[in-house]
């Protein structure tokens, strides 16, 4: 799966890392739904870190369509509410 982290670039992620991301992503959506800013910020940091450390960076000059877009690391809870409207719970 190709994942874009806004303002950070694209990464190729698969296997166990993708399953971990799916679980973390649900936790992130739960924090958004609960309006918990602190939990949201921590979960977003964890999601971005997982993608950056477990994914393979795609060079900026390589054009590949993203399967999933993750908000920028400095996204606020209010911005996330708008971004996640209609977002799928299951990534696979």
From TrEMBL:
The species this protein was found in: Thermacetogenium phaeum
The protein's name: PspA-associated domain-containing protein
Highest taxon above the source species: Bacteria
InterPro entries: PspA-assoc_dom
Domain PspA-associated: 1-86
Pfam families, per the entry: PspAA
């Amino acid at each position: 799966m190709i994942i874009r982290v806004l303002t950070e670039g694209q990464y190729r992620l698969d296997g166990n890392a993708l399953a971990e991301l799916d679980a973390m992503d649900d936790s992130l959506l739960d924090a958004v739904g609960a309006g918990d800013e602190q939990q949201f910020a921590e979960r977003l940091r964890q999601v971005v870190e997982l993608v950056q450390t477990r994914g393979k960076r795609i060079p900026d000059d390589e054009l590949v369509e993203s399967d999933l877009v993750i908000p920028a690391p400095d996204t606020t809870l209010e911005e996330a509410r708008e971004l996640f409207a209609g977002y799928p719970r299951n990534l696979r």
